[in-house]
Amino acid sequence: MNRPLRKVAIAALVMFAALLINANVVQVVEATSLKNNQHNVRLLYSEYSHQRGPIVVGRTAIARSVATHDALKYLRVYPEGPLYAPVTGYYSLTYSYSGIEQEENSILAGTSDKLFVKRLSDVFTGRQPQGGAVELTINAQLQQAAYTALAGRRGAVVALDPRTGAILALVSSPSYDPSRISTHNQATNTAAWNFYLHNPDAPMLDRAISQTYPPGSTFKVITTAAALSSGRYTPSTLIPAPNSLSFNDSNRKLHNFQGETCAGGGRMTLADALRVSCNTAYGDLGIALGSNALLQQAQAFGLGRSLSIPLPVVSSRFVAEHGQALTADSAIGQASDAVTPLQMAMVAAGVANGGVVMRPYLVSQERAPDSSVIAQAQPQELGRAISPAVAAQLTSMMQRVVTSGTGTAAQVPGVSVAGKTGTAENVPGRPTHAWFICFAPAQDPQVAIAVIVENGGIGGSTAAPIARQVLRAALGR
Amino acid sequence: MAEAAPIGPATGERRRGTELALVVFGLVLTLVAYAEVGLAHNAHVPSGIAAYGIGFAVLFGIAHIAVRRLAPYADPVLLPIAVALNGMGLVLIQRLDLAGDDAAAAAHRAAPRGAAPLQLVWTVIGVALFVAVLVFVRDHRRLRNYTYTAMVAGLVLLALPAVLPASHSVVNGARIWVRFGSFSFQPGEIAKILLEIFFAGYLVRHRDLLRLAGRRVAGLELPRARDLGPVLLAWAASLLILIRESDLGSSLLFFGIFVVVLYVATERGSWLLIGVLLFVVGAVIAGAAIPHVHDRFTAWLNPFSNAIYNRKIGSSYQLDQGLFGMATGGIFGTGLGQGRPDIVPFANTDFIMASVGEELGLAGVMAVLTLYLVFVARGLRAALGTRDGFGKLLGVGLAFGFALQVFVQVGGVTRLIPLTGLTLPFLSYGGSSLVTNWVLLALLLRISDAGRRPATPRPTSTDPRASETVVVRR
């Protein structure tokens, strides 16, 4: 019986060889992909074992880690949760992380190569590695003013420093409390997550950068820029403003808002057309300029580009339409036009900054655990959208929108405000989206703002007053 | 070639000093690991470590002395391997208990009842039974007299969970338990040894009949159709276990042991082929007909599919978490007490190898597998070395069954093969399993002792030491 017994021994040897080889495959060959699998929470657990750095606005930590007595040694808390949630995101055992928590994770967790020298000394001294701090460009007063002004309505506000691109306010409403999904209790996290997820107002949607809307009449700023840049128009050029605009490729006619007349059906200056936001005049202007000119101007302001601030921004869209009807629609911010509130703030900021659009950014400083600065934001130009001369012309046209046009609700005593209203049709039968974009002071711009209130009705009535609140906070009036 | 390799050195070498040194090494390994768990948990060496050290030394010292007295020629490596694995198992179970205590404290719940103290009690019982087997089974050939008693007892134990009401037999979905109040054990574990005794006894008697050749097909001598009875019976029995008790692992184990013992007994490769074919047919039928088995199979094929991961029954969650743990451990592991093996459900029983992989790394996994491999090799060597057919068949059943169990168990956890619910010998938490493996060890030592004992002791002498100088020629 010994001969088959030896063969059994060989079979046992083969079985163990298979186990040993397979263990090598799991723990070495496939280790990296297994480790980074979305369902592996171990890396998160090890991150929780040391103090994560704070996210700072001004001198206040809007996200910080506090020591606890449970198995996970630190708990992430957001003292003003909903106010800053669209910026901070969450840091959850159950749902990983998002927002700045995600994009700046290597600094916050202390694993960044930028912290290498620091970490090296930790290895030798045996100290627990600590996370670095991320300081934001957000201005607490503006953020609070915008959040309060939206008052829980569905919408967003973005405020930029037009000279640098620094994001001063980034508000999405309604919001959520990241503390509630960042607890150490999976059931609590799940309950809160589902509560937010099933809310029809989508509080976890970052409307400022992750959602696009038809820009409506705020797009007329871009159409005007294209017209002035073409050299064929000045603010005082008389353009046709019929009571209704007919097309050669459609039986449909373009009317003004609520069927109003702009100039009795005759002609009006380009400046007046912008001031009263005349649809038929701009439709006709768009056709005259052509869809390619509109497209080029839109792209010069940043539409079609994907940005990272470092949060990923959905790229805004403008399509060069074929035919008169759609070209006219696209020139007044309808058709396929789709923009983020951040993009429209960039349009206002570009005009304010003499025609140069700055790259928007949210992080002003990255600091090591010992508070030494390891990275400082440097303002960068995204590109020139219009010439300084066109920017000056457009600025004074937009000032008249606020002094005597559709945007009077945005007036701030003692300050010259340049703005443009928008009332965007979206789903047929639903109320229009209310838009307002502006910057101030007109001759020395310090802040550029975009406001949208979803289904908020008329831009001049709903969005402009919100912009006014933010302007007052920004300018201290 | 067969002449060149000597079978079981029957030179009368005892090597008990080697065994003692290795037992001490296994003990030191256990205590160092225990200290490491404490240091990782709260930066203190556990206060009871001295008491545990003395307790272990006494317990395993008794086991060693029992071997010295009762099986002086037995293989010196088997007992130390059992000591090391049992000790490491206790440390890992204690380590997972601590994680459970921490989780309970965090959730403001009372700490769950620890598994390690129970496993400690079972270790004592296991060593006691180990000594008892060595005392009462002075010659393994006497077990042959109980061939059919073992069969009946084994089948009764095996069938017990299937006939008991579910409230007394089902734990976590598997109907493999006998449970009364807080007392529970898996009769299948001890049935394994009883059936191995039956297989050996039955086949050594009938091997000549089963060797009778029937038809010769394609160079293979097939057995006569009428001799297929026993193998078909074993196949049917294992399928019944599988269907009634949802226990894929035990089913595969019993059938595998039977076929291999049958092959060794008859020296006919055709039995092996028939066995494999029957197994494949059985597996296909089971995979198609039993949802539980089908789930295990799809989870094995697509463990990272979200649909399978998220399903309520038959999820790949446990398998995936085990794999993540081992991958996170990498080559050297996180260190004992510094990983999160407690994330994996049943980390101290079915998935203890994932805990080893996470905290001791690939190095630890390979060390543990090597211990098992040496154990199996020494067990098979005992079978080779013994002179009687019954001993050979019992030895190969015990040793190969041990190897198959480790293969199916570790292979399932590491996704080499579909997952089944077996325990890992000596390492997993579980009284029935631990006690059974100590009994298995005692039987292997008994067979090994018989094989290595000088062949012709002087009939006048009752003192085994007197035979030391006899030169044996074979």
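qc> The two ends of chain B are 16 Å apart (CA to CA).
qc> done
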